[in-house]
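#onboarding

Welcome to the new folks! Below is a worked example of what a typical request in this channel looks like: someone posts a single protein sequence, and someone else replies with the predicted structure as tokens. Don't worry about understanding the tokens yet, we'll cover that in week two.

Example request:
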Amino acid sequence: MKVNFRQRLFIYFALLFTAFALGIAIFEQSRETDFKTEALEEKLDIYTNIIQAEINNTTTTYVTAIANIHNTLPSDIRITLIDAKGNVLYDNTVTDFAKMENHANREEIIDASKFGNGSYIRKSASNHHPYLYYAKKSGSIFIRVAMPYNIQLQRFLKADNLFLYFLFALFVVSILVIHRITNQIGASIKRLRDFAFNPDTNQITFNSDELGEIGKKIAENYHQVETTKKNLQLEKQKLLQHIQISEEGICFISASQQVEFYNGLFVQHLNQLTDIPQSNPSAILQDNLFAELHNFLASSEEKYFETLISNHGKTFSLRTSIFEDKSFEIILTDITKQEKTKQLKIEMTGNIAHELRTPITSIRAYLETILEQSLPEDKKQHFMQQAYQQTLTLSEMTKDMSLLAKMEEAPNTFALESIKIKPILEQIKSEFVEALQQKNIQWNWQIPDNIAIRANANLLNSIFRNLLENAIRYAGENIEINLTVFNEEAEFYHFTFYDTGIGIPNEAQLNRLFERFYRVHEGRTRDTGGSGLGLSIVKNAVQFHKGTITAKNRKNGGLEFIFTLHK
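Example response:
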């Protein structure tokens, strides 16, 4: 006969509770016996204390000392005195106790040697009667008392059965309760089973217990899953519609290389690449223009492949991903514009190389002159100094280009913190003291002492440093440089940085001041030093801090930069 879940549950709980009840019964019986034994040992310990006191207070023999207290002790008490080596010195139940065997290996004597006292129940080797022995160490001897282990003593040590009767009654009641609980659980499990085999029915009602709540939740989740499946189908339709209007040509192909789905842009891109117009997207699997794709699909060692396909003046990115079921997708993306942008970047790299070529050529020329010609020491020193100056220009240029690239490509790497501006200005001024004095330039600022913004310290320093350095190099001598906060809004500070120098004669050039390597006069940067990137760095750093910057000629002469920084 097959045992159902409710019956198995009842059997498991019944066996568990039976084992639990038996364990409690055995433990209680053992503990009660131990308690009674301890009480009896305490009584025997009192007897040994009496004997010990009498032995310590008398100068006569052990026989005489024990005879003095014999009437104060129970008549059936056996008294034995044993020395440290286990030899019997006295025993009131044996006449010729000197011939008794050595007691060093008796359990109660061993325990008394270790712990000060010990007890044990066994038959006596001398009279073959069972005793409860209790031994206590007293100086150099052991005092042992023993009570006959008779029926009266056995009854005293026997545990009371009243607790067992109570435990049995509790066991019967518990079995009945377990039977009722397993019936309830079994009914809930049966309803869950019925729902599992027929989830679409609405006739199943669950109990109000925890299992019933679980059943209701499972049913609710099932209906939610069904609703989600329907919604998923709708989302799938939306995704397919999105693919149709995507700016990428997409085609899904099965493991047997049968086209499953594609959008119109895929066929359009395919026709822009192939020599013969195609209406079937599977032509991509036969045309020799896509030989690299064919080789990738044939090898099937990797899961992803990407390459560039160029033809008829157009460039496309081709990407292929292979799925777990060996089907795959092919994506064609028109990157003709991106490739043109890339070409512009290459040209920019050429411009940078051109700017680097001048200091490098100068350094080479100076060093070759020193190495190949015999020059006076002062001339040689002059050439070495010029080469060193060109290396400084080169170092400054590469550092500035690196900073610009980092601001454009990885702005998130610059940490932000609250920074007071005035200490930065004071530090910059201390570094340019000599340059300011050489051209008799006064640099002043009018900003509040506590003005601070959330900014990157290095970039904020670059803004004011490059503006000051630009003014020192190009504004002229005997001038003033001023920095002022002329307006404050809820989110921005408005700054003006101007000099009283020569300004920019041709105002059409003002809009190009922030271009990389742009020179107002040809050769200006080479004559005065600098990387030619200072103002470009200023503009990018201001934009990093969500601000704007413009340049203009002042009415009274000089160049003025007006910029904002986000608080």
